[in-house]
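Technical annex, item 7. During the second reporting period the consortium partners agreed on a shared format for inverse folding records so that results from different sites could be compared directly. Each record opens with the tokenized structure and is followed by the designed sequence. A conforming record, contributed by the partner at site C, is shown below for reference.
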């Protein structure tokens, strides 16, 4: 072999080697060299991750008439079989099929390639019959059960014992017995039973919320239906749609809550000669007589100088099927026909508008329009209740300024004892009557809370309406001497220890410095003697036409529901804690008011009417 031939063989061998190398290493789209083919070059082996098999959910759901034997909820790998399950019929039922048409009770599903869910179908055995019973209390279902028995026998239903203040109303087929027995004649029937409030001597308001839940907010309404029964036929109605929320300040923290209801449409309540959407249900939990607010509003209605006084009707409240006790149905203090009827329209001239104003130390807390720093009344806070400050037509530079300036003008005239100017700005009759009312009850809160004024269009400033008397007339253990009504010597008209409103309330403290006001006060104290003692008699437990004679059974039932007669209830002094009966609480109030009237007549040198 010649030298040239050997050289040619070597070149060919190297060319083949280079070709083989190139065929094993190519570049990918990113220019990175990748190995291919069966190369035996010393390169790292590629790593391959083995994926876990996919799993699926297989469920077998029980249905009425039977149960599932085996694992009802399974997790099965792709391609595998589920575990065996079996549909077992209860007594009185037979298995028909599975929901996918499989007719054998026992089944094994697979191979599984997707999520699956099946349920068994059972039917009543032809040798059995079924009767269903549903029993409700208000909007609460207390029983819902179906009973199965062999043909030729019978089934028996005994609903739970009625809740407090309820009784069984009867069944839908007319049967009035709670416990009933049915045979196969009733196969497939559903019988409906219900409980109803036990009617005593007091109108009943039943409220059922849309969601069946409690009323937990003072700001957020929830839908409800309202029924009024056990009253004059013309007063009653059924399932009127409304909204309900809580109400009150300190009282909202008590176990027995107060509420505000707002109907979709205006309506009369308990024969009121006007219609309104909003009404209140006052719990009076802190007043064991349940009567202080009612007596004050009754007295207010009879006083000549007070034009607007709240409706006050005793009712029993049932809320979502639960007996809540005796409440006082009252107006909502607001502008409107039949209430503070001064109009709600805006005018270019604010003096031509009506304003409802409240003296309320909590006004800033409530997010209302507090402006105590503008009114010359020390640390008191005032707010405009009407017109609505959120109305686009409301302008604080016009309306707030007008009210502020008007109140300051009144306070300035009072401070200067300018009687003619006082009479030009204020309706004196209303202020005299409102003073007598609140001083008669020694109303603890009136000097800084729940004290209302209103100004009629192109008119004067009036006192009223009267509101919030539960912490009054001896039902208080702070602020003054536990409801004492000993008169003592008259040392100073303004600061007598027995004159609460005269001492604490800026407006009346100043008014009482005017002889003209005191003269009118003396005149009206004498004229109102019969009214005052007549109203006080309403709290006498033995009075033939008194509250106890009319509502005594309901009042007693209230204190079975709320067992507080043997303990203190927030503000009551020891003298009231010691009284263990509802009748005794009312008698104490009746005597307190009569004695209070005697004390006021003595202080203001008025001869007691004979």
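Designed sequence (site C submission):
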């Amino acid at each position: 072999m010649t030298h040239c031939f050997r050289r040619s063989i070597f070149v060919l061998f190297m060319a083949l080697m280079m070709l083989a190398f190139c065929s094993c290493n190519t570049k990918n789209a990113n220019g990175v060299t990748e190995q291919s083919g069966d190369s035996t070059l010393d390169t790292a082996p590629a790593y391959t991750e083995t994926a876990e098999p996919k799993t699926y959910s297989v469920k077998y759901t029980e249905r009425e008439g039977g149960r599932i034997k085996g694992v009802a909820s399974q997790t099965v790998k792709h391609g595998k079989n589920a575990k065996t399950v079996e549909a077992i019929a209860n007594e009185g039922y037979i298995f028909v099929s599975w929901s996918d048409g499989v007719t054998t009770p026992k089944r094994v599903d697979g191979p599984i390639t997707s999520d699956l869910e099946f349920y068994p179908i059972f039917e009543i055995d032809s040798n059995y019959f079924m009767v269903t019973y549903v029993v409700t209390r208000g909007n609460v279902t207390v029983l819902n059960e179906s009973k199965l028995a062999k043909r030729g026998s019978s089934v028996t239903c005994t609903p739970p014992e009625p809740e407090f203040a309820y009784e069984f109303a009867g069944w839908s087929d007319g049967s009035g017995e709670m416990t009933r027995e049915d045979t196969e004649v009733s196969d497939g029937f559903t019988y409906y039973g219900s409980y109803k409030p036990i009617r005593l001597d007091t109108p009943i308001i039943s409220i059922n919320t849309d969601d069946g839940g409690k009323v937990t907010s003072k700001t957020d309404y929830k839908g409800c239906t309202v029924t009024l029964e056990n009253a004059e036929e013309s007063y009653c109605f059924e399932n009127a749609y409304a909204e309900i929320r809580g109400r009150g300040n300190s009282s909202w923290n008590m176990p027995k809550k107060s509420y505000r209801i707002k109907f979709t449409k205006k309506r009369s309540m308990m024969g009121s000669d006007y219609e309104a959407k909003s009404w209140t249900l006052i719990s009076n939990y802190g007043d064991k007589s349940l009567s202080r607010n009612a007596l004050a509003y009754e007295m207010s209605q009879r006083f000549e100088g007070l034009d607007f006084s709240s409706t006050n009707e005793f009712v029993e409240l049932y809320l979502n099927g639960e007996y809540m006790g005796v409440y006082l149905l009252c107006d909502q203090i607001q502008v409107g026909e039949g209430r503070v009827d001064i109009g709600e329209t805006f005018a270019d001239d604010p003096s031509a508008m009506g304003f409802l104003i409240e003296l309320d130390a909590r006004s800033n807390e409530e997010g209302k329009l507090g402006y105590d720093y503008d009114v010359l009344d020390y640390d008191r806070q005032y707010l405009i209740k009407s017109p609505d400050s959120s109305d686009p037509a409301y302008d604080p530079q016009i309306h707030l300024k007008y009210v502020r300036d008007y109140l300051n003008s009144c306070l300035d005239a009072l401070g200067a004892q300018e009687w003619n100017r006082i009479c030009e700005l204020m309706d004196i009759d209303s202020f005299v009557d409102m003073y007598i009312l609140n001083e008669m009850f020694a109303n603890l809160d009136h000097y800084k809370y729940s004290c209302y004024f209103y100004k009629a269009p192109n008119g004067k400033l009036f006192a009223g309406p009267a509101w919030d008397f539960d912490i009054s007339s001896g039902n208080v253990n702070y602020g003054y001497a536990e409801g004492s009504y000993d008169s003592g010597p008259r040392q100073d008209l303004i600061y007598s220890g027995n004159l609460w409103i005269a001492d604490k309330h800026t407006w009346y403290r100043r008014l009482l410095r005017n002889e003209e006001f005191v003269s009118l006060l003396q005149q009206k104290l004498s004229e109102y003697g019969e009214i005052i003692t007549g109203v006080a008699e309403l709290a006498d437990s033995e009075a033939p036409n008194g509250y106890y004679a009319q509502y005594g059974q309901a009042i007693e039932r209230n204190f079975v529901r709320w067992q507080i007669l043997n303990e203190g209830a927030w503000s009551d002094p020891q003298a009231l804690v010691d009284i263990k009966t509802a009748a005794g609480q009312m008698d104490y109030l009746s005597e307190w008011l009569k004695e209070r009237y005697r004390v006021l007549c003595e202080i203001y040198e008025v001869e007691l009417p004979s």
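The mean pLDDT is 88. The first helix runs from residue 3 to 24. All partners now use this format for quarterly exchanges.
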